[in-house]
Amino acid sequence: MDNYFSNVDLFKYLRSLQICACGTARVSSKNFPKAPKVDKTDDHEWNTLSGVIVDNAVLAAVWIDNAPVNLLTTFYTITGDCRVPRTRWRPRITSSNGKAIREYFQDAPSAAVVIPKIIDDYNNHMNGVDISDHCPHAAFSQVPTFP
């Protein structure tokens, strides 16, 4: 789900309807808990995952990648065996956010990393949302267009 629309109240409502949801969220969104917030200017260890459960219904999680990734979910957990191995490419030297993970790669162009399952599933399934945003020329519109 797009982070512009994600908020705790929406995810609580979806949970009450027994609809599974997962999406990125803005820390400034309504009722986003203070506990998992991470300041972008602080140095944090890469691949750190933390979270807090809000009103016994929604998990608000933060994963430290090249930058903090804030998530809301109604069906994932972050305890136990919740990580999966994935191959990842080293960020370019010009990447301003890649400092934390670049140390992990050293001189190798790619490496096998273990990332949280919630992140892996979000990355694999987020492409189904807003297809019309990705290919506006292929989207159907009822409004006639003129060349």
From TrEMBL:
Pfam families: DDE_Tnp_1_7
InterPro entries according to UniProt: PGBD (IPR029526)
UniProt superkingdom: Eukaryota
Domain PiggyBac transposable element-derived protein, chain residue ranges per copy: 1-133
Protein name, as recorded: PiggyBac transposable element-derived protein domain-containing protein
